[in-house]
Amino acid sequence: MDNSDNPWGSGNNNGNPWDKGSSNRDFEDTIKKAKDRFDRFKIGSPKNLSMLIIAGIIFWIATGFYRVEPDEQGIELLFGKWNGSTTAPGLHYFFPSPIGKTITPKVEAIRKINIGYRTASDFGQSSNAVRDVIEESLMLTGDQNIADVDFTVLYKIKDAGNFLFKIRNPEETVKSMAESVMREVVGQKQLQYLLTQGRQEVEQVARIKLQDIMDEYESGILIQNVQLQKVDPPDQVIDAFDEVQRARQDKTRLQNEAEAYLNKIVPNARGEAAKIVEEATAYKEQVVKQAQGVARNFMDVYESYKGTQDVTKRRIYLETLREVLEGPNKIILDYSGDGQGVVPYLPLNELKKNGNN
Description:
The protein has 10 helices and 11 strands. It is rod-shaped, with a radius of gyration of 61 Å. Strand 9 and strand 10 form a beta hairpin. By secondary structure, the protein is an alpha+beta fold. Strands 6, 9, 10 and 11 form a 4-stranded antiparallel beta sheet that branches.
């Protein structure tokens, strides 16, 4: 039989396709090469195995290093339980996983809670829409009025461990406590005071009270600020309230005008009265002094008269004549009876004046 048509080739195997000649040798060579390559990766001795284990342990221990950024605090969990302390910014070490675990939350970010109203940003939107939440904003004041109060609480994390593990829902806790504190503060003030000069005081008192509650709860929260956004009467009565406000403003204006007029008139009247009193006092003193002088002069004359009566009479007579005759022009007539009763008039005064000229 001709083997030229045998598909397994010619050879000494009489047409057997499973020749155990060169094919078996090639297969054995392939197996040997694969075994040699595998032996290269095989740990050859217990010493090499120990070194590999030690290297793995060192690498595992090194994974315990962790870094806390300046705006973070470190929280260390041992077997999933917080160890009660927080770590400051910097490089620290703690048990590696799975024994220990570290958390580094951001603590410097300012968080905001709106109470009494909601903005679009509260729902992740970018519009400027604002929605009033009546059940949160309506509060009873100390004078039995109702005020519509919207405010915002700004806070940040003071102790990350307490914040994460001491309270279940920090944001809801802050919101509930802030609303309760604001109702307490508003309930102690009158509505008019809240609408005018009382806003700053309410903010300060509410912040302090809210911080005290957060510290009592060991919440790890620091209240940065409480900001009043709106303090108004309810919408249903705001028109009537505005009328009352305008009437009060008119009353205040008229009172101020009356006080200004009073402050202007009263000082003027008091000044005029003081002036009259001063003038009367001066006149009194002048008259009294003059009277005292006249009386003293009279007493002096009387004392002189008692000592020298003739001389005093003559002096008084002459002084009286001097006072009577001095001043006006005089014409002297002689009634002695010797003449005709007429004396020629000689104008000495005119002659004297002409001589001076």
